[in-house]
Amino acid sequence: MFVCPDRYEVIVIGGGHAGCEAALAAAKLGARTLLLTQSLDTIAQMSCNPSIGGIAKGQIVREIDALGGAMGRVTDISSLHYHLLNTGKGPAVHSPRVQCDKKIYQFTFKHFLEKQLNLDIMQDEAAQVCTDDKGVCGVRTVRDTFYHTRSVILTTGTFLAGTIHIGTVMTPGGRYNDMPSNALSKNLREELKLNIARFKTGTPMRINARNLEFDKFRPQPSDNPPWTMSHFTDLDEIAHKNFGQCYITHTTLKTDKILRDNFMRSALYGGNIHSQGPRYCPSVEDKIKKFPEVTSHPLFLEPEGFYTEEYYIQGFSTSMPEDVQRALIASVPGLEKCSITRPGYAVEYDYSDPKDLFPSLQHKAVPGLFLAGQINGTTGYEEAGGQGLIAGINAAHYVQGKEPFVLRRDEAYIGVLIDDLVNKGVNEPYRMFTSRAEYRILLRNDNADLRLTPYGLKLGLVDAKYQKPFENYKHLCEDLCEGKTPKADLDLGPWRAENAQRYADVQHKYAGYFERNKKDAQKLADLDNIKIPAGFDPAAVRGLLFESAQKLREVQPQTLGQASRIPGVTPADMQLLAIHIERFRKLKNAQKTH
Amino acid sequence: MQTDTICALASGPANGAVAIVRLSGPQALEILNRTVARARAWEPRRQTFCTLLDGAEVLDKALVTYFAAPHSFTGQDVVEFAIHGSPYIKGRLLELLCAYGARPARRGEFSERAFLNGKLDLVEAQGICDVIAAGNKAAHQVAMNQLGGKLSARLQEIKTHLTELLAQIEVRLDDVDEEMTPLTDDFITTRTREVIHHLKTLADTFCVGKLIKDGLKVALVGVPNSGKSSLLNALVGFDRAIVTDTAGTTRDTVEETLDVNGQKIILTDTAGIREHAVDIAEQEGMHRSVRAMEKADVIVWVTDGSLGVSEAEKALWAQIQSQHKRTIVVRNKTDKTPVLLDLPAEVKGAQVIDVSCKTGQGVDTLKAALTQELNAAQSEDGLLISNLRHYEALVKAQTELEEGLLKLDQGGEVIAEHIRGALSHLKELIGEVTPDEILGVIFSSFCMGK
């Protein structure tokens, strides 16, 4: 065994969307960080759709960006098509989505990592997270190299004991043509004793666009005037781009029949897949089975890059055998003559019960072990990126002896995401929706910077040079909201005056609702300020309902607010907890004085 | 945690001569000043005799004491109202305080605040916990028991309606493919109105909402000359407590509002009309009686005890029975014959009270029987406030939805705010409706893309 002489403080296992944000954040906060990944050539690979953002997801990207994460910037650099979704509805649900060139995206991200101070990248596969009585102490790789570290961030995506299904053919793989991490899966299950279960997800086939009949599609051009995903991108930077185009088509009765005739040959219905897949992103065979009355489903053609004819077919995710996939393509108007370049497939993988995590994303049973992304039962690049960022910050804080950084539900979708995961757990791959946010009017894409950039600056993730321009922009927004004449000639840096005006207009539209959301949120924040002291066992409180006591023991909430969000905990339970916490505190104080 | 202002009956649910209503929280003083006839600077811990008003209407004369924080039971600003112990006045005052921004306290909440503010010691704290725990169990038990009941069925209906409507709206807000047809204003209005209707019906079944606020509706029925008018006069006149004398909405009945020991009773009688229209056919009289009975909470059948039961009265009795309401039989004119004739066999089992309007014999017994109805309704689960809390929740949810309907043009996310608001008011009644439940409805009814 080779013992690496470099002593790391944070090791990130996995170089996907969670791992990349985690590694950048930890390193930026001054932690000596190592990113371990099987292959440097697939860093930040977009394994499924070629776009970043979407409903509620776009808000998450804006939040990552406002906090100082990289996803938004990398998106703008690799962008080939911009579309603000939901513009027919109110601004609280407007969601940015950007089609990206997949290759530019991943190489840009890799370049970001390479340039980052305090961050090393190594192409190797982690096989074992090593622990001693204090928690995490190192990582051993399949090459039998040992790295010292005090904290590990697991961002394994779909790679833990990944199995790929195309029809009845099953192959080991974390992504098509990439090997799964089986040694690490065994280590997590058997040595670290994590509560591991399996989820399933899938991806559609890719096609060559050479023979597409574009006149049969409804085109979807890029938005004009252009906008940027990142708060820090100069509009001129993307204005010169030659944007690509997306197209809309649909399935037919013929598609329907092919699927019906071949149900039993799909991995999903043939009996090979037993794990739960996401209900909101069903495979096309799922759609036919569950919604037999719908005879035509929309399909979206999205280009995979500037320098390729490959297109992604959104809405056509399938685990049917290859011959059926060919027939399916031929049944769609405009696709009849084109050929498949890569078949769609389903993948099954390990995830770990997120109820075992603190809101910092640290595992309750293994000090120094953090988990982010699909290993926590989520799906989506954006959900992964958001968790990666928080795990990166908190791993750095952990080794530096600082308080964990936790976002509340009224501050960010990232807060909603993590709060849901750790308090409610998951029973299907978790995707963000605006309906999951009770403070939807507060959590908008047009105010992500005002909500979170102060944190980004304070943490040190956002460059200090943006401090002054941000404050100027903030004052501009406030002035406009109050109807004052704003000061002229302020240095706004990358921020733009027209966005401040739009923000003010939106605030005006939602005036009463914004205040109401704020007021409700304050009540929750008050509860979150009441910490459940160390040594206090909420489940031992006399008089709690049996079910509540059980759930409290399972989740081990850290604040009274967190306890209140555990499903099934009643207001009376909360009263009892409040009294007992105060009682516990008084008894402790009394003991101290004696 | 303690930022809102809470109120509750501090003297227990039993009806004494005097009741204490307590108000605690930062808004206590402000609410007090809105409740009394004359706002003033209150000297702490000094009892003040003052008039409590609901708008222009005098609610009661009360002794009011203000305790300034932290020198109070809870450590917060506290106001105690010593009022007359009638359930009607108690209920009205609590409702009024809630209308001005207080909310009904949960069981043990005053003591909880007292403890958290350092006003009680550790031993006392355990006592409070026992009280809360008992309430928790009881409420849980009630919730469990309700699962099979009529109330629960209606609550479930409300929950299903609201959840489905919200899901319909939410799914469009989260519609990734932007392919779904928008909901029409008509659809949202119809569905919301349905829920509002359910909420209203349910609110009306609560005794505090209906009986205490509006009074107990009593229909006096009987064939002509059975003595309904004299009974009415005996009930009303004897007490010298006529509040109003208003014509009923149907114009062919007379309503008398009566205050018996602080409880409001509305007597509906067809007698007044009868005297003006002597020649109206008996058939018509029957119609009126039926209408009065339909609106009533309690039916009082007046029959002349000195005569036998006629065929017409037998027909009337059948009508009364078809109403399935609590019925009291009054055998009138006990002064005329010392020996009363027997009632028909099928009447046996109903509560029978012998009354002489002339001598006043039995009138008090009748009144007690009527007020007993109100008392019984209130002491269900032993707590007045628990009913009030539910009533408040239902009314607030209703208001929330009404407001939502006025904002239809503002977009789905705004209407959703109102429906979410309504659901959060109803939390205690129907349980929390979580995003997972909404998504459950969405996923089972709609095909959602990535």
Quaternary class: heterodimer
Silhouette of chain A: globular
What is the CATH class designation of the domain at 2-203 and 349-436 in chain A? Alpha Beta
Under CATH, the topology of the largest domain in chain B is which? Rossmann fold
| H/E element sequence of chain B | EEHEEEHEHHHHHEHEEEHHEHEEHHHHH
Strand adjacency order, main sheet of chain B: 8-9-10-7-11-12-13
* Assigned CATH class of the largest domain in chain B: Alpha Beta
Helix content of chain A: 25-40%
Terminal CA distance of chain A: 54 Å
Brief rundown of the structure:
The complex is a heterodimer of chains A (594) and B (450). By secondary structure, chain A is of the alpha+beta class.
Q: How does this structure look, described?
A:
The complex is a heterodimer of chains A (594) and B (450). With 594 residues, chain A is α+β, with helices and mostly antiparallel strands. Among the domains of chain A are: 2-203 and 349-436, FAD/NAD(P)-binding domain (3-Layer(bba) Sandwich); 463-523, no CATH class; 530-593, Orthogonal Bundle (DNA polymerase, domain 1), CATH 1.10.150. Chain A has a 6-stranded antiparallel beta sheet with strand order 16-17-18-19-15-20, with helices on one face. In chain A, strands 7-3-2-11-22 form a 5-stranded parallel beta sheet, covered by helices on one side. In chain A, a hairpin with a 2-residue loop joins β8 and β9 (135-141). Chain A is globular and about 85 Å long. The N and C termini of chain A lie far apart (54 Å). The model of chain A has no long low-confidence stretch (mean pLDDT 94). With 450 residues, chain B is of the alpha/beta class. Chain B folds into 3 domains: 6-105, Gyrase A, domain 2 (2-Layer Sandwich); 147-206 and 383-445, Up-down Bundle (Four Helix Bundle (Hemerythrin (Met), subunit A)), CATH 1.20.120.430; 215-361, P-loop containing nucleotide triphosphate hydrolases (Rossmann fold). In chain B, strands 8-9-10-7-11-12-13 form a 7-stranded mixed beta sheet, with helices on both faces. Chain B has a 6-stranded mixed beta sheet with strand order 3-4-5-2-1-6. In chain B, β3 (48-54) and β4 form a beta hairpin. Chain B is globular. Chain B starts with 5 loop residues before the first strand and ends in a 5-residue tail after the last helix.
